[in-house]
Design a protein that fits this description.
The chain is mainly α. The protein contains 20 helices and six strands. Helix 9 links the parallel strand 3 and strand 4. The longest helix has 37 residues. It is elongated, with a radius of gyration of 30 Å.
């Protein structure tokens, strides 16, 4: 069979080596992008008077037909002849020639697969990132809904996984939402990296035909043209950015999963998993396991691995195209599939959580109010460092006596500092603690309500119903 490059060679390549180098089994995912790019290239060649208007129209029609046939019948990619194609570019060209003959053999004039593959992957990300965006927004919506439903319920916050200070449960859900909003923005930045037309670069030195690359860029929806043809054919920074955005978002998903795994455990019992979002044990009848969240946490490893592996692939490459770059696609597709599946699973699990208010509020009370006690003394003029010492000693005593602040009489308080007055008993409570917070990013109920409202506006600006 003739390959795109068979003229130079006396015979067919070694079958196993050809198979080793072929990418059609996975790059067929770029089929509609390759066709779209080829239609635009035919038009550019017509405008440059390389193709006659008649030839260009014939090519366009045939490509449109092929596109419809391929989308309607995935079996086309597995047909006998297709299984011998090296990659999606060869497949499209062979199918085109089969449909229009000689005119199809002119389409590759002035164009190289080196730039074509970069174009296809850019077009692919342009059409797929909006789907990732929608999936992130759906998770954010579910987090916002949990924040809203939690009302004024309190829980402890943790540092070093030790009780730190009381917060609103809503503040906790909004904390995770904040990370996913940054991820959303990171994928917008990836779209910006993607937004450069590589065509006109040829194999490396540019093209010898008078292609209007600006017009071609706007026809294909790009706002810029690459600056340098050598760089363009070997540049996959947009792939690195995409994998980084995926890996970091998986890290956020993994931390969310970890929090919910902990907080739904018997030890915390803050939240309950919906029965539909948990799994049982084949042996232990009592178990209600958070498998989907564990898998989200587990799959984070493979996406981080795809980023690390890809950067390792890139680091030794001379500038310009090398076949190593073909390794970009499988990692990218796998990362994409994994983030979409993980976001969707996490959203379903979070959506089904119920809050055990008795448990969260019991845990939000007690010695984690120590900072508020210190602040009470600061309000009476004690330097914070001294207040910290006094309250530290008080906490030491309470721990030894297995008591807490609410168990203290006014006399007990005053034995630690004469500045404590009767009002200390009302001043030190979880509700008083959050009401004392002042900054907009704090857990003050008004600040949290404003943050939730702002998030809901963010969602509706992205056409997500809240
Ligand atoms: N399948 C190749 C890739 O994915 C397409 C570009 C091939 N170019 C070449 N000169 N061999 O990178």
């Amino acid at each position: 069979m003739a390959h795109l490059w068979s003229g130079r060679f006396a015979g067919d390549p070694d079958a196993a080596l050809f198979e080793f180098g072929a990418s059609f089994s996975f790059d067929r995912r770029l089929f509609e992008d390759d066709v779209k790019g080829s239609i635009a290239w035919a038009q550019a060649l017509r405008d440059a008077a390389v193709l006659s208007p008649g030839e260009a129209t014939k090519i366009e029609r045939a490509l449109e037909e092929l596109s419809a046939a391929g989308l309607a019948n995935p079996g086309l990619f597995a047909s006998d002849s297709a299984s011998r194609d090296e990659d999606v570019h060869s497949f499209v060209e062979r199918e085109l020639v089969a449909r229009v003959g000689d005119a199809g053999r002119r389409l590759h004039t002035g164009r190289s697969r080196n730039e074509q593959v970069s174009l296809d992957l850019r077009l692919y990300l342009k059409r797929r990132i909006p789907h990732i965006h929608r999936t992130i927004a759906e998770l954010v919506r579910v987090l916002a809904r949990q924040a809203e439903m939690s009302g004024s319920t309190l829980m402890p916050s943790y540092t070093h996984l030790r009780r730190a200070q009381p917060v609103m449960v809503a503040h906790f859900f909004l904390a995770h939402a904040a990370a996913f909003r940054r991820d959303y923005g990171r994928f917008e930045a990836v779209l910006n990296d993607v937004d450069e037309l590589p065509l006109g670069s040829g194999a490396i030195a540019g093209t010898s035909y008078s292609i209007d690359v600006k017009a071609l860029a706007s026809r294909l929806g790009f706002s810029r043209v690459v600056a340098n043809s050598i760089d363009a054919t070997g540049d996959r920074d947009f792939v690195s950015s995409f994998l980084h955005a995926c890996a970091l978002m998986m890290v956020h998903l993994s931390r969310l999963a970890e929090d919910v795994i902990l907080f739904t455990s018997e030890e915390f019992a803050f939240f309950d998993l919906a029965d539909t979002a948990a799994t049982g044990s084949s042996l232990m009848p009592q178990k209600k396991n958070p498998d989907p969240l564990e898998l989200v946490r587990g799959k984070t490893g493979r996406v981080i691995g795809r980023l690390a592996g890809w950067l390792a692939t890139m680091k030794g490459l001379p500038i310009g195209y090398s076949k190593d770059l073909q390794e970009d696609k499988e990692g990218l597709f796998e990362a994409e599939d994994t983030v979409i599946a993980s976001l969707t699973a996490a959203a379903t699990v979070i959506d089904g959580l119920t809050i055990n208010k008795a448990a969260t509020e019991a845990a939000a009370s007690g010695l984690l109010l120590a900072t508020d006690v210190a602040d009470y003394l600061v309000a009476k003029g004690v330097p914070f460092r001294d207040a910290h010492e006094i309250v530290g000693a008080l906490v030491r005593r309470l721990v030894a006596e297995q008591r807490t602040f609410t168990d203290l009489s006014v006399k007990d308080w005053q034995s630690h500092s004469p500045l404590f007055e009767a009002d200390v008993r009302d001043a030190i409570s979880p509700a008083a603690s959050i009401a004392k917070k002042r900054t907009p990013q704090s857990t003050h109920p008004d600040a949290v309500a404003a943050a939730l409202k702002e998030l809901q506006q963010w969602l509706s600006a992205r056409a997500v119903r809240t």
